[in-house]
Amino acid sequence: MNKKKMIAAAIASLGIASVVGVGTVAAQEANSTSLADRIATEFNLNKKDVQKVIDEDRDARHEEMQKKVEERLQEAVDAGKLTVEQKDKIIAKMEEVHEKREAQREEMQNMTRDERRAAMQAQREELQQWAKDNNIPTDYMMFGGRGHGPGPGGMRGNGPAMEAPDAN
Fold first, then answer.
1. Cα–Cα separations (whole angstroms), residue 152 to 30, 49, 82, 159
2. Is 118 helix (H, G, I), strand (E, B) or coil?
3. Number of other CB atoms surrounding residue 168 within 10 Å
4. Which value, to the nearest 10 degrees, does the dihedral of the CA atoms of residues 132, 75, 91, 111 take?
5. CA dist list (Å): 66 to 20, 39, 84, 167
6. Which end of the chain has fewer beta carbons closer than 10 Å to its terminal beta carbon, N or C?
7. How many CB atoms lie within 10 A of CB 60?
8. What are the distances in angstroms from CA 151 to CA 4, 42, 58, 82?
9. 3-class SS at 62?
10. Distance between CA atoms of 1 and 8, rounded to whole angstroms?
11. How many CB atoms lie within 10 A of CB 155?
12. Rounded CA gap, 155 and 148, in Å?
């Protein structure tokens, strides 16, 4: 078996089957040894090669998730539940949040569980305020990486579901 197949098999065997949010990564890596370090050590592989495969997999899953979300948002527009402007704002905000989380990945891993929880709660509150300020129904705020799509019952992040907006 060549090294790339071995790396892929190792990753699959460790359950890397979904987009990994910042909180999930930090929980999985309770100590300072990274997943790439553990796989490289376990299978006697080059850590940089393993990390490259992990990063490529995460990027591919992010792109796949992004496409699904955009399709579901378009369905909401077609059904008259969102405007095109709201859809575009949500997509832009999703990418902004993704980039911010990627930039903070290491920092979050070095926080205690309570510090991570507080930081993630602050991010949720910031997103809720952004949604309110932009007249975006919070049912469509789905930036955590674990759900299944926008709309009621859809992607609502790693934390508790956000409440629907008050009808005024």
1. 33, 40, 13, 15
2. helix
3. 3
4. 80
5. 14, 28, 17, 29
6. C
7. 11
8. 38, 42, 24, 10
9. helix
10. 11
11. 22
12. 5
Tokens of 67: 């496409």
Alpha-carbon span 58 to 107, nearest angstrom: 18
List the pLDDT tens digit at each of the 168 positions of the chain: 555 554 544 454 444 333 334 444 444 443 335 888 999 999 999 999 999 999 899 899 989 999 999 999 999 999 999 999 999 999 999 999 989 988 888 888 889 999 999 999 999 999 999 999 999 988 887 654 444 344 443 433 333 333 333 333
Q: Which amino acid is at 74?
A: Q
Sequence ranges of the domains in the chain: 3-140
Amino acid at 104: Q
Using an 8 Å Cβ cutoff, are 19 and 62 in contact?
A: yes
- Tokens standing for residue 23: 């909180």
- Distances in Å between the Cα of 132 and the Cα atoms of 32, 81, 106, 128, 166 are 38, 16, 30, 6, 10
Residues across the chain? 168
Q: Give residue for tokens 């592989």.
A: 45
Nearest to 139 by CA among 19, 61, 64, 127: 127
